[in-house]
Write a structure and sequence with these properties.
Chain B: Belongs to the ATG101 family. The structure holds two protein chains of two kinds. By secondary structure, chain A is α+β, with helices and mostly antiparallel strands. Chain A has a domain of 223 residues: HORMA domain (Cell Cycle, Spindle Assembly Checkpoint Protein, Chain A). Chain A is built from 14 helices and seven strands. Chain A has a five-stranded antiparallel β-sheet with strand order 3-1-2-7-6. In chain A, strands 4-5 form a two-stranded antiparallel ribbon. The chains are: A alpha+beta, B alpha+beta. Chains A and B meet through helix 4, helix 5 and strand 6 of A and helix 1, strand 4, strand 5, strand 6 and helix 3 of B.
Chain lengths: 540, 237
């Protein structure tokens, strides 16, 4: 680790000449490969220094950002004299793990690839739950029209500007929502959520457009590539595009914190951060513990798909393909098995959980449906959508039983109505109400072998009426019952000509004539009833 | 004639601060808001302690920093790790706080207001017997108005609102600081006191002073007025 030792032990440019206006030799850099003082490298001397400054600026920036998300207050001391590690005249302590990881990334970095620091919130128990909060980018753009210089004044100026930018970074990191979050969650005792950091190199092909960047795939990206692939097609194979909007949610804010223009290129610091923290309700009470402490292991590099938070790809939507639940398009309600439509969110642990792998942290307003074979016998109710029955597993059976039930119901109701209309209130007779009719039908469905007591009443039009196909000869109850059993199942199977005459009347003209002729008999009967009512009853 | 490049930065913002109706309480929001903003600015405008060596060479010390939590607004800010500087700032801010809450400070509307300015300046040596002149090169001004809070909910909302507002100002300060702008050149040892405040043991900020006023017109010191005065003097020769 000679390189590491060299870097850590190098002095900052504190040995610069005091008055930059009166310099007479190039600034001396005590360390670094082959850059002794006055060695006569000419223009390259300044370039090497600036390269070094950029590298250390990157290292220190990562330290600042990651330490600010540790959830603890930071305090470092001012020193009247600088020591070797005090780059940019700022006392920024180095977290060893973060330093190592950043160095690794810098090693594999190609010349123009920016470094990105990702701060995200993840659930410890559920690895799929991840919310990216911030994406910090450090870019160094080597311009084409460089004007190499050896002026120590210019180089000193660059150094000071970088120092200023680091101070800005320190201030701004405390002013963002993620800082408050880290402090709050570090005080809680739950361990459900943790703040994670990740440092990786990225490619921003679109220099003017800061809507995202390309992130090289860890496995495929050729190590030690000298230059990033320029061809878009080639890029597509090796990178994946991280779009700020999809990763950070709508309403994300983008800020260019500042830039330092050097004779060899422009260093800039950018930030994109989430403003809408959409998480499940547990989040506000959940705690966070920062993972990046020396005792915890490194986090593997995570790849986020650009459409990770797209609702269309939510695992809940695709649950039906794997699990027991099924669904079609979102607009029509769908029922499964014998259950009626259940509009409940799928929550892990509930009886309705249909086998989806995890719950997404992003809230959705989609309807979720109960899985098939839900043990809810009480939920049984007639299903109205016959069209869906064809596609259901046991749809045929359900259809048949449904239709049987319906027809019996109709029949009974029809008969029941006729019963109640015609029969006068008679204490001796038993009247079937509609509810009882339905109950009767239900019982009948379950077992057709049971005998059911059917109380047959004298039908109004019996005995003297015409014998059209609908009427029954009440003199034979058994025959009546048999005929009822053999009655057509649905009304549709009845002949198009309903009983009665061509005009559709059940009461034919002949019947009417009969009624009118026997009107006196009916009147007498009614009078008899009234007089019976008026006879002194027992107890009044 | 000296080419004077100046920049006047003014943050004129309206801050709402609580004050209970019934009784006057110690509302520290004013001091916290002002401290946060001015410390953030000073942090950018402070270098390490200079140590001059032979042949005009010098070395610069290192600045530490510390996080300060505000108790009355939802905010944390960074300031130089220097107890002397913190003490100086407290002195100025509490003087302003008292002035603005003074019962005699009342405008016609019944609203209490005031403003406080942080000014960075250079000293210019003038021949004896005249005192050295102060030439400001950067001025930051905060304007404060006191607002009455009537309910607990309003106080909580105000607390959060102020925290966000001041946080945005800090980001704005960072953006302004990082633009290409004028900074005084690093002086030789003999002239360091004209540019820097060397009274602090561990840090070295640019020369600055803090003034406040509770009257409606803006503060008397302004860069523009100074420039005009210099031009007048120059032309008078």
């Amino acid at each position: 680790m000679t390189m590491a030792t060299a870097i850590l032990a190098s002095d900052g440019p504190e040995h610069l000449d005091g008055d930059p206006d009166r310099f007479d030799k190039p600034c001396s850099s005590p360390s670094g490969s082959g850059s002794g003082a006055g060695s006569g490298y000419g223009d390259y001397e300044g370039g090497k220094d600036i390269e070094r400054y950029v590298k250390f600026f990157t290292l220190k920036s990562v330290q600042v950002v990651v330490q600010s998300r540790l959830g603890k207050k930071v305090k470092t001391d001012s020193k009247p004299t600088s020591t070797g590690t005090d780059w940019f005249n700022l006392n920024i302590e180095d977290n060893f793990e973060v330093l190592e990881q950043t160095k690794e990334v810098l090693k594999s970095q190609s010349s123009e690839i920016p470094i990105v620091i990702e701060i995200s919130l993840q659930s410890v128990t559920d690895t799929n739950t991840k919310l990216v909060l911030e994406l910090w980018s450090i870019l160094y753009d080597r311009g084409s029209d460089n004007s190499p210089t050896n002026s120590s004044r210019v180089i000193y100026n660059v150094y000071n500007r970088m120092s200023l930018l680091l101070k800005s970074l320190l201030c701004v990191t405390r002013s963002l929502p993620a800082y408050k979050l880290s402090r709050k969650l570090s005080l809680s005792e739950d361990d459900e959520f943790k703040l994670y950091y990740n440092v990786f190199s990225a490619i921003s092909l679109f220099k003017g457009d800061r809507t995202g960047f390309f992130k090289p795939k860890v496995k495929d990206f050729p190590q030690g590539a000298s230059s990033p692939p320029k061809d878009t097609a080639e890029v597509g194979m090796l990178q994946e595009y991280i779009d700020y909007g999809s990763v950070l949610g709508n309403g994300y804010k983008f800020n260019q914190l500042g830039k330092v223009v050097t004779p060899y290129g422009t260093l800039s610091l950018e930030l994109a951060y989430r403003t809408k923290m959409e998480l499940s309700t547990n989040f506000s009470q959940g705690a966070c513990q920062f993972v990046g402490t020396p005792s915890t292991p490194n986090i593997n590099k995570l790849m986020i798909k650009s459409d990770h938070y797209a609702i269309e790809n939510s695992p809940l939507e695709n649950a039906g393909q794997k699990g027991l639940g099924r669904q079609r398009n979102r607009s029509t309600p769908v029922t499964f098995g014998m259950g009626r439509e259940n509009i409940k969110p799928l929550v892990p642990g509930s009886p309705n959980y249909g086998g989806s792998p995890s719950s997404s942290p992003v809230t959705t307003n989609k309807k979720h449906f109960a899985a098939a074979f839900v043990d809810d016998a009480t939920l049984f109710s007639p299903i109205d959508e016959e069209a869906d029955l064809d596609d259901m597993p046991l749809g045929n059976l359900l259809k048949k039983s449904m239709m049987m039930q319906r027809n019996h119901q109709n029949q009974r109701i029809e008969n029941g109505k006729m019963d109640t209309q015609a029969c006068p209130p008679d204490q001796n007779s038993k009247t079937l109400t509609n509810e009882e009719t339905v109950a009767l039908v239900t019982e009948q469905d379950e077992s057709s072998n049971d005998f059911v007591l059917v109380d047959l009443k004298a039908l109004p039009f019996a005995g003297g009426g015409s014998s059209s196909s609908g009427t029954v000869d009440s003199s034979d109850p058994i025959q009546f019952f048999q005929e009822v059993q053999q009655a057509p199942v649905s009304l549709e199977s009845l002949p198009s000509h309903p009983p009665g005459d061509e005009s559709g009347n059940l009461i034919t003209d002949d019947d009417l004539k009969t009624f009118e002729s026997e009107l006196v008999i009916f009147d007498d009967f009614v009078k008899k009833l009234i007089s019976t009512d008026q006879s002194p009853p027992s107890g009044d | 004639m000296v080419r004077l490049v100046f920049e006047s930065n003014r943050i004129v913002s309206l801050y709402t601060i609580q004050r209970k109706l019934a009784r006057t309480t110690e509302c520290h929001q004013i001091s916290e808001v002002v401290s946060c903003i001015f410390h953030s600015i000073l942090f950018h405008r402070t270098l390490g302690k200079f140590h001059y060596r032979q042949e005009g060479r010098y070395s610069i010390g290192t600045i530490g920093y510390e996080d300060i939590d505000c108790d009355f607004i939802d905010l944390t800010y960074v300031r130089c790790a220097s107890s002397a500087l913190a003490k100086t700032m407290n002195h100025y801010v509490s003087a302003f706080d008292q002035a603005i809450r003074d019962p005699s400070n009342m405008t016609e509307n019944g609203v209490r207001s005031g403003q406080i300015s942080l000014e960075f300046y250079n000293k210019k040596k003038v021949n004896w017997p005249f005192a050295a002149e102060c030439l400001p090169w950067e001025v930051w001004t905060i304007r404060i108005e006191i607002k009455t809070i009537r309910s607990e909910i309003e106080r909580q909302m105000n607390r959060e609102y102020l925290g966000e507002l001041v946080g945005e100002k800090v980001v704005l300060i960072a953006e302004v600081m990082n633009r290409q702008q004028y900074l005084p050149k690093i002086p030789a040892q003999s002239e360091v006191d004209l540019i820097f405040d060397t009274s602090y043991p561990d840090i070295q900020p640019y020369l600055f002073r803090i003034t406040h006023s509770t009257t409606s017109p803006p503060s008397t010191t302004s860069v523009g007025k100074t420039v005009r005065r210099i031009f007048r003097e120059t032309l008078a020769f």
